[in-house]
């Protein structure tokens, strides 16, 4: 490797393989041809051999010139077949073939035949000699001048072509977004520029921050026989000579030229990092080619710098600044790809949350918090292979995305068991996790992430150290309920909740004895939300307390309107849920509402369901007794659906049992002796309560219950529930209606 040359400090001459200069003699005079051949044999011009080509006619010469572009000098007899044959040949060489580099020396047999000056100029003819003047000595001088002229022109032309290619190549380079893509292009474009087979390497010298500034060399791109070394170090090239050349280029920070290879250097200040590019040239590049490479190198440096800048921006967008691991953006990007990819069903997303984190962060300061985050990030990074994405979503929420086989829920739990926790996390922190199998999920990445977060949040309500698996069914129901609850709150605030009243009728007298107040929710678009959808939700979430309070006040207002209209003897039944009734101040509230509405207690009935009554029996009995003491009636709703025993029923302070609609439906369909409605009526009689049937829709049902001892009924046979104003009109018409 001792013959290499730096082209950073060029001037040292190259030792190229011997040059060859082609000289063509065109003359129909065989004697002259022979003499010239003799004079030229073994001649050296400008470090090159002369290779002689001969043409004996205009035709022969033009064929030769069309094929062979690299002829340095033509010695041309002007007069051949015709007087102007020589000049015609020159014209076709310059204008038709387009060869501007080949030098031309005109010869004539006799003096006085010199071409005019314009012709010499127009066709770029260098010299004009009569054959007799052309001694061997003079021939050498003439050829030397011609060859030099040719060589210079050819360099200029090649440089021009090369520059043109560089401009095109540079454009190609600037489209690259990654160093790898760019490096591959660098190799192919250099090969194109130098007209070589692509065999080369691009490597970067990366400073390892961890090992204190010591740098390692990484191969980013490699082609031809080096292909396998991509991503490896220099030793993976398995070629000591090539590795040494690259190493030296990076060490000396300059480009190197060898006999059969060239190593280009791209410095950090131009390219963003120190890069070296090795190109197998199989020959020594000449000065023009080296010049071209120099120019191209500037473009390459700029390209590398742009890519570095691009990836830095990308890093900023996709990396967590504190922990130097992928951030939420990176997770979403990868999650989206995974959800669309073929391996989707084998992938899992795990979210991990540090219990107690925000508390500790507040108590011990953010420095402590950062430290704990670092511990968790490291532990996760160490545990999983490169196939698994470990990201920080936000605050103390981490995400793991990877193959099911590698990211197993049980292992995650194990990973953060007390004895496995990093010492520093000690007793302070446990972790909670949720595992979402992507096979259970269809939707976008951000929805997947949101759902996983929601179920983690729910799991954490129970306490610390929770590890759950995402259940899509539960989740979508939860999401829907949540949406509904928000809408319900808005509806309450906007006054879109109202009540309607459904009459209850004495079957014997046909008098209206009561009305049941039923909640109604009319949405902005006019559609109704059924109470069976929102009442249970409100009960489950505690929202029934304010909602029930509102419904109670609306019902009492209606009772007041009935009394004002002269229907003071019609009792208004109000449905009361368990959480309402179990409030310790329920009686006090109820009393206040009664007073505010100006309604007498005996105008009102409270309906509680059988299951509520049996739930907290003692408390419920106490509240019901207090109501009855005030004069408020009590009805047990949906009776027959619970499992209250007769002995409890005897103790329950209630006035009326409401036979559930499902038993009324059976009338006419089931044998009489199997009718539960019949049993309910008899039980009521036994415990001394009145009984009312709900959901009476047919006259047959009405006849049947009356026959079996139930005097009151409520149902569509008489009326549906309606707004108070409508009810007042209905009541006015009622006695006139046909039975
Ligand atoms: P519920 O207390 O058993 O109310 C009777 C339900 O049966 C009402 O449905 C009523 O419209 C319906 N109904 C009445 N007659 C007939 C009939 O002949 N045929 C049929 N098929 N249905 C009839 P709604 O209004 O949908 O209420 C459903 C449930 O929602 C109520 O059952 C009650 O449990 C609850 N609810 C309604 N309003 C309130 C309220 O203000 N407070 C509370 N806590 N719960 C309420
Ligand atoms: Ca009811
Ligand atoms: Ca009922």
The name of the CATH superfamily of the largest domain reads EAL domain
Query: For this structure, what is the CATH class of the largest domain?
Result: Alpha Beta
Number of helices: 26
What is the topology, as strand order, of the major beta sheet? 18-19-21-22-23-24-25-26
Hetero compounds: ligand C2E, calcium ion
Looking at CATH, which topology of the largest domain would you report? TIM Barrel
Secondary structure: helix percent: 40-55%
Strand content: 15-25%
Instruction: Work out the number of β strands.
Output: 26
Largest sheet: 8 strands, mixed, barrel
Number of domains: 4
What is the level-2 CATH architecture name of the largest domain? Alpha-Beta Barrel
Mean pLDDT: 85
């Amino acid at each position: 490797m001792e013959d290499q040359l730096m082209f950073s400090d060029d001037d040292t001459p190259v030792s190229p393989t011997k040059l060859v200069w082609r000289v063509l003699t065109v003359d129909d005079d065989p004697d002259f041809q022979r003499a010239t051949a003799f004079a030229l044999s073994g001649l050296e011009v400008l470090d090159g051999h002369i290779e002689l080509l001969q043409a004996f006619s205009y035709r022969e010469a033009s064929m030769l010139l069309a094929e062979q572009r690299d002829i340095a000098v033509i010695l041309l007899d002007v007069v051949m077949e015709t007087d102007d044959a020589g000049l015609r040949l020159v014209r076709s060489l310059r204008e038709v073939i387009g060869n501007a580099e080949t030098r031309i020396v005109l010869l004539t047999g006799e003096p006085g035949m010199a071409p005019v000056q314009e012709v010499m100029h127009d066709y770029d003819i260098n010299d004009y000699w009569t054959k007799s003047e052309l001694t061997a000595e003079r021939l050498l001088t003439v050829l030397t001048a011609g060859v030099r002229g040719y060589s210079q022109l050819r360099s200029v032309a090649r440089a021009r072509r090369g520059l043109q290619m560089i401009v095109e190549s540079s454009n190609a380079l600037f489209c690259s977004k990654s160093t790898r893509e760019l490096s591959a292009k660098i190799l192919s474009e250099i090969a194109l520029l130098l007209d070589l087979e692509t065999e080369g390497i691009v490597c970067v010298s990366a400073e390892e921050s961890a090992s204190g500034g010591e740098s390692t060399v990484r191969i980013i791109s490699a082609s031809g026989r080096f292909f396998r070394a991509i991503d490896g170090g220099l030793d993976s090239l398995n070629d000591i000579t090539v590795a040494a050349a690259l190493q030296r280029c990076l060490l000396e920070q300059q480009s190197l030229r060898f006999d059969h290879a060239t190593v280009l250097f791209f410095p950090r200040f131009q390219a963003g990092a120190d890069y070296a590019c090795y190109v197998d040239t199989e020959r020594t590049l000449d000065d023009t080619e080296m010049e071209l490479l120099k120019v191209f190198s500037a473009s390459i440096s700029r390209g590398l710098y742009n890519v570095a800048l691009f990836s830095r921006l990308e890093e900023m967008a996709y990396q967590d600044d504190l922990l130097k691991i992928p951030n939420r953006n990176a997770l979403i990007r990868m999650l989206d790809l995974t959800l669309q990819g073929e391996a989707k069903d084998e992938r899992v997303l795990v979210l991990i949350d540090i219990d107690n984190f925000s508390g500790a962060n507040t108590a011990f300061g953010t420095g402590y918090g950062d430290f704990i985050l670092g511990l968790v990030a490291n532990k996760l990074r160490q545990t999983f292979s490169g196939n698994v994405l470990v990201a920080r979503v936000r605050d103390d929420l981490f995400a793991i995305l990877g193959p099911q086989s590698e990211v197993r829920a049980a292992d995650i739990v194990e990973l953060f068991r007390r004895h496995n926790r990093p010492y520093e996390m000690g007793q302070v922190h446990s972790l909670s996790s949720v595992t979402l199998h992507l096979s259970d999920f269809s939707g976008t990445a951000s929805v997947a992430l949101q759902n996983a977060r929601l179920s983690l949040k729910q799991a954490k309500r129970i306490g610390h150290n929770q590890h759950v698996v995402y259940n899509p069914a539960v989740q979508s129901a939860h999401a829907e309920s949540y949406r509904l609850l928000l809408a319900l709150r808005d509806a309450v605030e906007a006054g879109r909740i109202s009540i309607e009243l459904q009459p209850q009728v004495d079957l014997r007298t046909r008098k209206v004895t009561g009305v049941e107040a039923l909640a109604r929710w009319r949405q902005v678009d006019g559609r109704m939300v059924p109470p069976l959808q929102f009442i249970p939700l409100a009960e489950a979430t505690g929202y029934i307390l304010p909602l029930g309070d509102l419904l109670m006040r609306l019902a009492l207002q209606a009772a007041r309107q009935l009394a004002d209209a002269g229907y003071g003897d019609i009792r208004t039944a109000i449905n009361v849920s368990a959480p309402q009734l179990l409030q310790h101040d329920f009686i006090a509230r109820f009393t206040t509402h009664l007073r505010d509405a100006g309604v007498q207690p005996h105008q009102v009935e409270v309906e509680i369901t059988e299951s509520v009554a049996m739930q907290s029996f003692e408390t419920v009995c106490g509240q019901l007794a207090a109501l009855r003491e005030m004069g408020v009636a009590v009805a047990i709703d949906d009776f027959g659906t619970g499992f209250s025993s007769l002995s409890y029923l005897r103790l329950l302070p209630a006035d009326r049992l409401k036979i559930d609609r499902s038993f009324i439906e059976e009338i006419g369909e089931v044998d009489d002796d199997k009718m539960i409605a019949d049993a309910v009526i008899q039980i009521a009689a036994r415990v001394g309560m009145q009984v009312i049937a709900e959901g009476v829709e047919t006259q047959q049902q009405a006849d049947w219950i009356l026959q079996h001892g139930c005097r009151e009924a409520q149902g569509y046979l008489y009326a549906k529930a309606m707004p108070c104003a409508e009810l007042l009109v209905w009541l006015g018409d009622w006695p006139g209606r046909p039975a």
